[in-house]
Amino acid sequence: MALRGERVAELRKELGMNQKQLAEILGVAHNTLSQWESNSKDPSTAMLKRLCEILGCTSDYLIGLVDI
């Protein structure tokens, strides 16, 4: 199932972070996060879990299974 990159971007912005800041927290390159947010690449399962922890959401939300 593909990541909904716009949801990552939305939650990141709600937390007041730019892409560079979130990428540093995750330990990935800025362009990697950019690719996730533009839906050109998907994160690994482990990285999806980290994204959820940091962004305060579920994986179901980030992959579009639920809307809340």
Q: Topology, pairings included?
A:
Layout: H1 5-14, H2 19-26, H3 30-37, H4 45-55, H5 59-62
Helix pairs in contact: 2-3
Structure in words:
Helix 2 crosses helix 3. The radius of gyration is 11 Å and the shape is globular. The chain contains 5 helices and no strands. It starts with a helix and ends in a 6-residue tail after the last helix. The mean pLDDT is 96. The chain is 60% helix and 0% strand. The protein is an all-alpha fold and 68 residues long.
Q: Which key features would you list for this structure?
A:
single chain; 68 residues; mainly alpha
Question: How much of the polypeptide forms β-strand, as a percent range?
Answer: under 5%
Shape: globular
Mean pLDDT: 96
Structural class: mainly alpha
Radius of gyration: 11 Å
- Major beta sheet, specifics? none
What is the number of beta strands?
0
- Count of discrete alpha- or pi-helical segments spanning 4 or more residues: 5
Kindly report how far apart the N and C termini lie: 18 Å
Helix amount: 55-70%
Return the string of H and E elements: HHHHH
* Low-confidence runs: none
In short:
By secondary structure, the chain is mainly alpha-helical. It has 5 helices and no strands.
